[in-house]
Specification:
By secondary structure, the chain is mainly α. Helix content is 72%, strand content 1%. The mean pLDDT is 81.
Length: 267
């Protein structure tokens, strides 16, 4: 019985690994192989798809736009999440018991309110700008980000801040000098969540920008699908390049990301 469980467990692990690794391998293989080579292991590799990708510099502009949107979303969301999460973790106020609604708001499909959002962006004069995309990402990322920071703040002993208050520290000073440094791993975890969410978001860029120079990476990927066919080699080359910035960001901060996720899991 134990041997059967062991075998089944390993079969499950191998299946999951294959399901994760195979799409990555096939994407890289398609990007490096000739468009007409359908073999599992191509014998000749080429960089033509990558040369085509960076020809004219348009895809580099797409990456710049995605970086602006992603970093702008993190910059706008993090202060809101810090202040909101700290308030939920440390203070009692009317309506606090309804804060669980913050977990429901991210479940709202953005497309359900997309028409209203487009109207608001036009009224604010932000339509056809990257500011509109950043604002939309911030609005939809903030509820879950606030709840994540709340969990991290609850893991920090309240007595540390109380000692600082007794020594003459004000509430804001206790937040920025005591709580925020201790919650730094959690804030990094929130930043990674917001950055990846904004980097992969296609809907807001499609809805709020119509100019080609303002396209982000997900919109550029769909540009390889035309009425004449799909350039799978170019699309996969773009996809492999698009994975690098968030992957590098994650690897650079993975230590603090793991610490933050574990800190937020307990009170």
């Amino acid at each position: 019985m134990a041997r059967t469980r062991f075998i089944l467990a390993w079969v499950g692990v191998v299946f999951i690994v294959v399901m994760i690794i195979f799409p990555l391998y096939w994407g890289v293989r398609t990007a490096l192989a000739d468009n007409y080579d359908r073999r599992f292991f191509p014998t000749e590799l080429t960089l033509d798809n990558y040369r085509f990708l960076f020809m004219g510099g348009r895809f580099i502009d797409n990456i710049k736009n995605s970086m602006i949107v992603s970093l702008g979303s993190v910059t706008a969301t993090l202060p809101l999440a810090l202040l909101g999460g700290y308030a939920l973790a440390r203070f009692d106020f009317p309506g606090k018991r309804f804060s669980i609604v913050l977990l429901v708001l991210p479940l709202l499909p953005a497309i359900a309110v997309l028409v209203a959002l487009i109207m608001y962006m036009r009224m604010l004069g932000l339509y056809n700008t990257l500011y509109a995309v950043i604002l939309a990402n911030t609005v939809f990322s903030s509820p879950f980000a606030v709840w994540m920071v709340r969990g991290f703040m609850l893991s920090i002993p309240r007595e540390i801040e109380e000692a600082a208050l007794i020594d003459g520290c004000g509430p804001l000073a206790a937040l920025f000098r005591i709580a925020m440094p201790l919650a730094a791993p959690g804030l990094i975890a929130v930043s990674i969540f917001v950055l990846i969410s904004a980097w992969n978001n296609y809907l807001f860029s499609f809805a709020f920008t119509t100019k080609t120079p303002l396209q982000v990476v997900p919109a550029a990927l769909l540009g390889f699908i035309t009425s004449w066919g799909t350039n799978y080699g170019g699309m996969n080359a773009a996809a492999t390049v698009a994975m690098l910035p968030p992957l590098i960001f994650f690897l650079a901060f993975q230590k603090w990301f793991v610490q933050g996720m574990l800190a937020g899991s307990t009170k």
